[in-house]
Amino acid sequence: MKKFGWRMLRWGAALLVVLAAALVLRGLYAFRDRSPGYQLDLRLGPSSASATPKPLRVGFGRVKINPDLSDPRRPVWLAGFSQNRAATGIHDDLWAVACVLDDGDTRIGIVGLDAIGFFHDDVIAVRRACRPEWKLDYAIVCAMHNHSTPDLMGLWGPNPLRSGVDQRYRRQVISAAAQALGDATAALQPALVAFHEIPMSPDGLVADTRKPIVFDPDIRVMHFTSPTQGTTIGTIVGWANHPETPWSKNTEITADFCGFLRETLEHGFSHDGHTFARGLGGIHLYVNGAVGGLMTTHPTVTVHDPWLNQDFKEPSHDKSRAVAHRLAAGILPQLVKAGAPATNAVAISVRARTLELPVDNKLFLAASYLGLLDRGHAHWKKMRTEVALVTIGEASIACVPGEIYPEIVNGGIEHPEGADFDLAPLEVPPLRELMPGRIKFVFGLANDELGYLIPKSEWDVAPPHLYGSQGVYGEVNSCGPDSAWLLHQALGALCRDLKSTTSSP
Ligand SMILES: [Zn+2]
């Protein structure tokens, strides 16, 4: 009897050791670095302000990225709201849209994906899929963050414990992004560029669902035209809003207002035999900006379609179109206005570097362990990500790898009662004050999706809560309280570096 008891104990202990080893091995596998050794520290472009750039060339390309809905045994899980939302159809096409710019010395590519988010490892995969003969010095991959597109982050499968990512679709998007860059490179042609900053009121368009109320409301546009024909080659349009207009009950795949906007800029809009706006032709690349904190065409927002003269409150595709029409009605007259200054003498500069950010969010760590969030950790609880600053003539672009709160970009960070950390705002001065140039684009979800980037002095998990509220939303989808200020510091350093080399002595 005694002997039997000892044996049982020994077996039990051995079983525990095996179990512990299996758990550790699972962890090592789940957190393994997907891109070991990947590091970037780019400094491209003229070394002084006096260098004269060669004539600009620009090309656009696009590749459809609709998922395959033909097999009922392989449901397509829609991202962005709750789990278990299977796609029932395609309302409008999803695209990878690319623009390649070449100033004779430096060639960069920008690709915008109709996707909820795209991790840094996937961005690296896109870069590795680009052919050497395309001679791209740097490629930026941005997700639009559309909330009715297939899950590419793993959080929206059939249940909370199963990823919604179809690896075949992920590979399809990676190769489509690279192909769009290849097509844009093949389409390179001499171009003039004009930069526009178009004021846009958020009223009846975007709500800010978390205090402080700060928007990034204006539209920024790069308009490329042919110097010989005067026709539009394409545009890059930057604005900031969650593309989630049809809201959580929608099960049709849609690019949301991003798709309607691209369509309207290209083809214009006619209805009932009346033409409300003429299109520009060309290919249009929309990029989302500071959408955190939280910019959204919430179901409480009534959007007035200026052309149909109709109000839309209930979430619907028509409401998405109304958002796009509001934007297009601001953009198109500005672009066709005669005498918009355009130039072909623009120099391109790039500063880009990888860095490691701490991950404190236990839910993110658990999701990584379970294989839901399929991205590597460069070191334990440290994710590799990337910041970049690009200048194109008098325009600059800050590439932010997540959903940044607009107050970090435009100013207005607070330290409200109820905040978890007793400190003054760290993310100052505002990013746009640090950036060089006249027209300052902020590309959000650029080269990564780290979730919300929240000012540390507004961080709130523990009660009492901000502004006497019952609690706030945001922290649950953030890596931690230190991501925003670390990224702000890294971007600030790139701004200073670029300003110091390109400003006149
Ligand atoms: Zn979001």
**Helix count from the secondary structure assignment:** 9
Largest sheet: 5 strands, mixed
- Rg on CA atoms, Å: 24 Å
Mean pLDDT, to the nearest integer, reads 95
Biggest sheet, strands in spatial order?
A: 1-19-20-21-23
Enumerate the distinct ligands.
zinc ion
What global shape is seen?
Answer: globular
Instruction: Please give the alpha-carbon distance between the first and last residues.
Output: 91 Å
Task: Throw out a few tags for this protein.
505 residues, alpha+beta, 24 strands, binds zinc ion
Protein model, in words:
- Helix 2 crosses helix 3 and helix 4 packs across helix 5.
- By secondary structure, the chain is an alpha+beta fold.
- The protein has a domain of 155 residues.
- It binds zinc ion.
- The site of zinc ion has 3 residues, from loops.
Summarize the structure.
The chain is an alpha+beta fold and 505 residues long.
Give the arrangement of secondary structure elements:
Layout: H1 2-30, E1 41-44, E2 57-64, E3 89-90, E4 95-102, E5 107-113, H2 120-129, E6 138-143, H3 167-186, E7 189-190, E8 192-198, E9 207-208, E10 219-225, E11 232-239, E12 252-253, H4 256-267, E13 268-271, E14 274-278, E15 283-288, E16 295-296, E17 303-305, E18 310-312, H5 317-336, E19 348-358, H6 362-369, E20 382-392, E21 395-399, E22 403-404, H7 406-410, H8 431-434, E23 439-443, E24 452-453, H9 483-502
Helix pairs in contact: 2-3, 4-5
Bound molecules: zinc ion.
Zinc ion is lined by residues 145, 242, 403.
